[in-house]
Amino acid sequence: MAQIKTIELSEKTATLLDCKKMLDGCFDKLGEIQNDMFGYSRDFESKLALAYTEMHGLIMELLVDNIDAMSTESKYKVI
Q1: Mean pLDDT (whole number) for 48-72
Q2: Which is more confident, 67 or 38?
Q3: What is the pLDDT of residue 75?
Q4: What are 20-28's contacts with CB under 8 Å, separation 24+?
Q5: Using CB atoms within 10 A of its CB, is residue 54 exposed (0-12), middle (13-18) or buried (19+)?
Q6: Hey, where are the domains in the chain?
Q7: Long-range contacts of 39-44, Cβ-Cβ distance < 8 Å, separation of 24 or more
Q8: Minimal CA–CA distance to 67: which of 2, 23, 11, 20?
Q9: DSSP per residue over 13-45, as a string?
């Protein structure tokens, strides 16, 4: 039988994970609204993708830094 191990997340880490989920939902919804109102636009999709990539990168950077800072006692390292 496989052993399940868990780690406790800090409140800030959990909040950042929630931000990532909200970001995904927001950009999905923006794309849907654009398509419904005006149809597909390659220019809009490109702008949306660039904005998403930038925001996603910022969230992930904060998330990694937060997990690294909070995990020093447990000797876990984000790779």
Answers
A1: 90
A2: 38
A3: 63
A4: 20/56, 20/59, 20/60, 20/63, 23/52, 23/55, 23/56, 23/59, 27/51, 27/52
A5: exposed
A6: 11-70
A7: none
A8: 11
A9: HHHHHHHHHHHHHHHHHHHHHHHHHH---HHHH
Structural contact between residues 70 and 10, judged by C-beta atoms closer than 8 angstroms? yes
Tokens 């390659």: give the residue: 42
Place 73 in a pLDDT band, splitting at 50, 70 and 90: low
pTM of the model: 0.74
pLDDT > 90 fraction of the chain, expressed in percent and rounded: 62
In this structure, what is the dihedral angle of CA atoms 51, 55, 61, 65, given to the nearest 10 degrees?
170
Tokens for 1, please give them. Answer: 């039988």
